[in-house]
Design brief:
Layout: E1 3-6, E2 9-19, E3 22-32, E4 38-41, H1 48-55, E5 60-64, H2 74-80, E6 85-87, H3 90-95, E7 117-122, E8 130-135, E9 140-143, H4 152-158, H5 161-170, H6 181-184, H7 191-202, E10 207-210, E11 216-217, H8 220-227
Parallel strand pairs: 4-5, 5-6, 9-10
Antiparallel strand pairs: 1-2, 2-3, 3-4, 7-8, 8-9, 10-11
Protein name: DUF4336 domain-containing protein
Organism: Roseovarius albus
């Protein structure tokens, strides 16, 4: 089930879920940290086979929710891996008061992974916020909803005609890969956003992995220029 993207980094695709009547694919990223601990980003639904495959990589030490939308299965993972720490921005923590989190994620990565994974908090919108992660060893940028990159085939299979019109109008399709329009138009100011774009474009990003849509494996800088063009 796990697909190796680079040394110490894997992805795994899960089942589709519905959100406000729209069907979305799901995807997790799994990273083996230098200390051998396993870092799981945006945990998907976890069956016995996947849990065993991840456990075979090493002890699961971190379960990460990047935004308040990506939290559905994190409690299930915690039950399977009770020693793991749970992380998320303050918005996720407020939504999941039933879980015990570590300090809220911000622009500053915690000591647990700061030397290996850089993070950026996109937090100037009234609609949503998200923490992006850059895995330095593989030069992989990990985004949840900040880029959605649906193919025509996926949309024709899962979305109704009026929904496909929205996807094209919003630019959440291959060839653009933008963040959803309702997010983009609700930024109070774009100073930090423009600084983030410049920072990301200055990094040697090789791969771009998003939760929803086609991953960009190689040519990451070209993809970033495309998917951040709206900023």
């Amino acid at each position: 089930m796990l697909i190796s993207i680079s040394d110490g980094l894997w992805v795994v695709d899960g089942e589709c879920v519905k959100f406000w009547g729209f069907v979305y694919p799901t995807r997790s990223v799994v990273v083996r940290l230098n200390n051998g601990g396993i870092w799981v980003w945006s945990p998907i639904q976890c069956g016995e086979e996947l849990a065993q495959e991840v456990a075979n990589l090493g002890p699961v030490t971190h379960l990460v929710s990047p935004c308040p939308i990506h939290h559905l299965f994190i409690g299930d993972w915690k039950e399977r891996f009770p020693e793991a720490k749970i992380w998320g921005p303050l918005s996720t923590q407020k939504k999941r008061a039933d879980l015990t989190f570590e300090p809220a994620l911000t622009d500053d990565a915690p000591d647990d992974w700061c030397e290996e994974i850089e993070q950026f908090h996109v937090d100037e919108s009234r609609a949503n916020d998200e923490v992006l992660f850059l895995h330095h060893k593989s030069n992989t940028l990990i985004m949840a909803d900040f880029s959605e990159n649906f193919t025509d085939e996926f949309l024709k299979t899962h979305w109704r005609p009026w929904q496909r019109w929205i996807a094209r109008h919003w630019g959440v399709v291959k060839g653009k890969g933008y963040a959803p329009l309702d997010w983009r138009v609700t930024f109070r100011k774009r100073t930090k956003l423009k600084e983030l774009k410049a920072t990301l474009l200055s990094r040697p990003v090789e791969n771009v992995i998003m939760a929803h849509g086609t991953m960009q494996i190689s040519n990451g800088q070209a993809y970033l220029n495309q998917c951040l063009a709206w900023i």
